[in-house]
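Appendix B, example 12.
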Amino acid sequence: MISSRNVLRHELIGLDVLVSGASNPEQRGLSGRIIDETRNLLVLETPTGIKRIQKMHSIFRVSLPGRELVEIDGSVLVLAPEKRINLHEKKRIP
């Protein structure tokens, strides 16, 4: 089950997110649902349309199932999703 301790090892698509910090001032405060993820971008579906947010210079507040909120520095997400999930999985195996 996804939690604040293992969020980096899980798929983010489908989760609700708020952009709490961004180098682009127009992106701060955007909220929506993550509909796609690339190496450098999160693609959000917002009430005003599809928005592409750079991971590197952003801070995301993600709503996990069970109403838990997690703040994630986008720089730790900069990696292809499938590689990020596998990388963190390998690190936890002794």
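The chain has one domain: 7-92. The helical segments are 81-92.
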